[in-house]
Design goal:
By secondary structure, the chain is mostly beta strands. Helix content is 6%, strand content 47%. The protein has 1 helix and 31 strands. Strands 22, 23, 24, 25, 26, 27, 28, 29, 30 and 31 form a 10-stranded antiparallel beta sheet that branches. The protein is globular and about 65 Å long.
Length: 524
Amino acid sequence: MRKWLLTLGAIVVIGILILVTFYDKNETSEQKEKELEIPKEYNQSLRPQFHYTPEENWMNDPNGMVYFEGKYHLFYQHNPSGNEFGNMGWGHAVSEDLYHWEEKPMALEADDQGMIFSGGAVYDEHNTSGLFGEGKSGLVAFYTIAGEEQTQGLAYSEDGGETWKKYRGNPILPNPGIKDFRDPKVIWHEESEKWIMLLAAGNKVIFYGSDNLIDWEQLSEFGVDQGAQGGVWETPELFQLPLDGDPSNQKWVLQVDMNPGSIAGGSGGQYFIGDFDGKAFTREGAKDDINWVDYGTDFYAAQAFSNHEGNPIWLAWMSNWMYASDLPTDPWKGAMSLPREVSLKEVNGETRLIQEPAGEIESNRSQKLVDLSDKEVEGRIPLDDFKADMYEVVAEFKLATSGEFGFRVRKGDEEETIVGYDSKNNLAFIDRQNSGDTSFHEQFPGVYRAPLEPTEDGKVKLHLFVDRSSVELFANDGKRVMTNRIFPSEDSDGFEIYAMNGKVTLESLEVYELDSSWKTSEKE
């Protein structure tokens, strides 16, 4: 009898454990469902899920990029009252990991002097401006006042960027009689112990110097006969980098954007490698050499975070002035690229700007969707069980006989975006001709190409980020980058591997689904 009771007791205990385990699993499943919930205001079918967008209304250039007290501050051109360009001020968002962003109230708004155009911000640690009182410090922002003419204004923040006061003496830099005179970028130049301001002025950059961030003296000009000159120069950027990580071999990078006349049509960016001595920039190479920042259509007005240690991290407006006003999105218009860490490397005897994804991307991989290795590819290989609209692709191919290979992403019955490599001509490319809605502008559909040599051992690496309305390609460890917006149907969520005119070896392929930047643990 006692033995039977003990046996019965054991059965009861086991049953309770099974029920508890079942309950725990259900609770875990429900909790996971809650964690993956995306707020409805950020969950439209074309809303990027790991690229920053404001909840509503128009956005363009990033502004005032600064890292301060553990937070990345992203300011940006924003119309707080409409979904088109106009009434421009500075929107504001912050992040601790460059992946999750919190939208803040407007930082700067238009006033009777004019709209607030693009600019930059710095940390005035030693109160060189005298704006913060004895022994105090703060953030100082510089922007273009777009009134009857373009002049430069200043604002400052005493609370870490939460609120801003416009300087009573604005404008701090009047217009010298130049139509396009805008986008102040300010850096600290250690060797000369001066603040340096860059301003875009038509087809050149003008450099100014200051001891106090308020009074500015013109130092030099660069660019009248340099690089691409197909449009107006805008949003300059300047920083110093070691070549191949060698601290004894430092070079300066000057980046400017141009509209129109870029490599892919419309607006785009170019960069110059050279030296800056605190007064003037001197470039390396021939004056008509052109180095494009991005070979896609949608990477414009790139700006780096100031007050950030290590290699610069920048991001750009993911759009193009050719069609920015016509994009088929609502209630917002405009998105930012992924943040990118930039470096300098020697590639085939040339000094080249390298761009690689920055931020906490790997920790936001929710699951591995595909894991393949050593697979011979010939023809088209659809992945029948694949259904996703936001993911990361990490692939390495070994060249063989194929003339072209790559992926068809955001694939539906009649839609696809092709990301591939033309091995006959050594070109990486993105083809968005049948990517979805292309009807809103005649210049939107197209094929965009970037020169890309295979590695020394005959390989091509394609690192790709696919979001609900964008494709970003980092090829061969960031040696070439391409950024393109796409607007596919919601059910175009397939994926295909392909090789044409021969075979190629897919040495490795990993595809990760990515968490939404907007996910919350609370249901709406």
